[in-house]
Amino acid sequence: MTNELQRIFIKGGVLSPGELKRVIELAEALGLNDISFGSRQDINFPVTEANKSVLDQFSDLTMASVSDAQNQNIVCSYVSSDIFMNTPWLNGVKYLYILENFRYNPKLKINITDPKQQLVPLYSGELNFIASDHEDYWYLNLKLPHWEEAVFYPVLIFTFDIHKISKEIEEIYADADDVEELFDLVNANLQTNNRTIEKELVVPFQPFPYYEGMNKMGINRYWLGLYWRNNKYDLNFLKDFSDFCLDHKVGKICITSWKSFIVKGIHKEDKLTLEKFLGKRGINVRHSSLEMNWHIPVADDSALDLKKFIVKSFDQNDISTYGMTFGISNFGENKTYFTTAMVEKNKTPSIVKNFQVRPTFNVLYSKNFNPNTQDYIVYAQDVDKIELPGLLMELSRMYFDQLGDTPQEKEDKKAQKIVTQKTEVHQCPDCMTIYDSKYGDLTADIAPNTAFEDLPETYVCNVCETSKHEFELTYI
Fold first, then answer.
1. Where among 262, 287, 312 does a domain terminate?
2. Most buried residue, 318, 356, 367, 384, by CB count within 10 Å?
C-alpha cells in the first residue's frame, strides 16, 4: 500500500496548543503514532488511499500533498525573536500582525526574516522579505520560478504592504521578464508606501546557535527547545505537552526549519514543573550540537542513516562543528541550499540500474562558510560514503581557520594558499620533462637555484634535447 506524504500549512511555523491538538486529532484518526516537521515549518504525515477520506473531516486545516506545488507555507523568524539576536524594531507582535494579514494561501514560497538571526534561513523562498535597519521597512529578494538569477526589488517594502505585494506579485509575475518590469506592473496596480534603498543589504556571518533545552528569556521567563533525531514526534507526548501549555498559559508553539520546535514565554514558577514533566517522559533535552545542525529530507531513511554515520564519526574523533550547519540532498532535487556544507547524493547511472552500484556523493560548501551568500563551491565530487566524514572534518578545520577574519583577510589567505601550493617551473612540450630552478640540472652542470632566464642559450632538455626556447611556463 503506497503512502502519500501530506503536509499541513502552519503559517510562519506558529501555532497555538489548541491548534496542535487539532492536528493530533487528525493524525490519530489516520491511525498514526507520530508526525514529522518539514523544512518550511510545516507538519508532515503519510496518508494512504484507504484512509484519505478522513482528511475531509478536518477541512479547517489547510493541507495539501507534498508533491502538490500549488500552495506553499510561509516561513518566518518569529521563532527566534526575543531569544536570539534580533533587529531592534522587529518583535513577535509585528510578525504575528504580518502573518494575520495573509488571508490567502500563497502559491509562491514566502520568507519573512530578520537578518540578524541564524536559525531561520533568509533565502530559501521565492519572495524573501528581510528586515532593514529602517523601522517597518524590508528588503525583498526575488527568486521567481522563471527567472535565472535572484535579484532585489528596487525599493524597501513597508511592513503593512507585505501581504498585498506578495499577492500582487503572485498574480502578475509570469508577465514580467525582469525586476524593473515587475516593479512597474506592481506600481500600476497598487498604492504602496515604499522607501528608497540607501545601501545594499549585507548579512554578516553569525555562528549557528544551539537551540535545545531550557534557556533564560528575560528576567522571569524561559524558552524550551525540543529536538527528535528521527523527526518522528510521538502523538501521546505532544498531546500531553499541548495540555501542559494550555494549563500554564503558554500561548504559542513554534516549529523551526530544522525539524524541531521551540516554546517561548514559560513562567519562572512553571520551570521546575516542566522539567519534571519532561523527565518523567524520558525526553532528552541535551542532544549534541553535532547532530542538531543538520537538515535532511523528510521521510528519507537513507539520508537519516547517512547523517547518523557521519555524526558518529564526528563524535568518535571528538571534533567541534559549532556554528556550522550541514545538509543532505539528492542531486538536482533542491534549487536552494541554506547550510554551510552540503552532501549531494548522485543518481545511479541508468545503464547499470540492474546491478548493485555503490552510491557516490558530492561535497559543497558555501562561500566564506556563510550560507547567506547563496554561492556554493564544490569541494569534492563522486566520492564514496566512507570518505565523507574525513572531507567534512577538513571543511570544519577550514571553517575555524577563517572564523572571525574580515573579507579582505579571507582573500589574502586564499592568495597565500595559492602561492604556497603552486611552484613556477618550465616544462618541455615534447617529453614533459620539468626544469625547476630550485634543483637546477646537474646532468648539464646547472647549479641549484639557477633561474630559467639565466640558463645558457645552448641549454637543451636533458631527455629529448629540445631547445630551452621551446619550454613552456607552468605551475606545480
1. 287
2. 367
